[in-house]
Specification:
CATH class: Alpha Beta
Strand content: 5-15%
Largest sheet: 6 strands, mixed
Strand order of the largest sheet: 1-5-2-6-8-7
Distance between the termini: 37 Å
Helix content: 25-40%
Shape: globular
Number of strands: 8
Number of helices: 9
Order of helices and strands: HHEEHHEEEHHEHEEHH
Mean pLDDT: 94
CATH architecture: 3-Layer(aba) Sandwich
Number of domains: 1
Low-confidence stretches: 1-6
CATH superfamily: Uracil-DNA glycosylase-like domain
CATH topology: Uracil-DNA Glycosylase, subunit E
Radius of gyration: 16 Å
Length: 209
């Protein structure tokens, strides 16, 4: 029970904690807590996003669930056989991931979807644990620059030596990092990321699993 409380009331980032408490008052029936990872630790693929969306994962308690980014991500996972069932935009929809696990660089929802540098660094230990606790991990897919930089740091590498670029791959021994633009509504509405571009990344990922 204490572990449950600690996970739901993390106080390491005062700004995020304050935002969480305000959201609990404003939205008392929603999850409003650090969002845990989704998928089995024995998976070969780890997808790393930015942070929970206010009315997405922060409400549902499952990464990328309940917002537009999740609509595109889970539709793509289902198409490529990396998920099974149906995505119903809630954590009780019965959707299962196949050989895939999903997490975020920052586990608590940040104001305006913008975590600060210190907040990202504070959550880095959780990301390191995600990576080290996956014995079969082969590929990490970073969605966006913040995720990319966090993964590079978690792997003990220098960001300057591994620049983010959509579709780029970075090899670290047994683990390959692949980059994609984040599947946010902004990126898809502006054409920065198209469905074809996103699926091309998953084609490359599948070839390396």
């Amino acid at each position: 029970m204490l572990d449950y409380i600690a996970k739901h009331n993390c106080s390491l980032c005062p700004r995020l904690m304050d935002f969480r408490e305000k959201n609990r008052i404003k939205f008392p029936d929603e999850y409003n807590a650090p969002v845990p990872s989704f998928g089995h630790k024995n998976a070969q693929l780890l997808i790393v996003g930015l942070a929970p969306g206010l009315k997405g994962a922060n409400f549902s308690g499952r990464p990328f669930t309940g917002d537009y980014a999740g609509d595109l991500l889970y539709a793509t996972l289902l198409k490529f056989g990396l998920a099974k069932g149906s995505y119903g935009a809630n954590k009780d929809d019965g959707l299962e991931l196949v050989n895939t696990r999903i997490t975020n660089a920052v586990r608590c929802v940040p104001p305006e979807n913008k975590p600060t540098g210190p907040e990202i660094n504070t959550c880095l230990n959780f990301l390191k644990s995600e990576i080290t606790d996956m014995p079969n991990l082969k590929i990490i897919l970073s969605l966006g620059l913040v995720s990319h930089n966090a993964v590079i740091k978690a792997l003990g590498q220098k960001i300057s030596a591994h620049k983010f670029a959509h579709g780029a791959t970075h090899n670290f021994g047994d683990i390959t990092l692949t980059d994609s633009y984040h599947c946010s509504r902004y990126n898809t509405n502006t054409g920065r990321l198209t469905t074809v571009m996103f699926e091309d990344v998953f084609n490359a990922v599948q070839q390396n699993i």
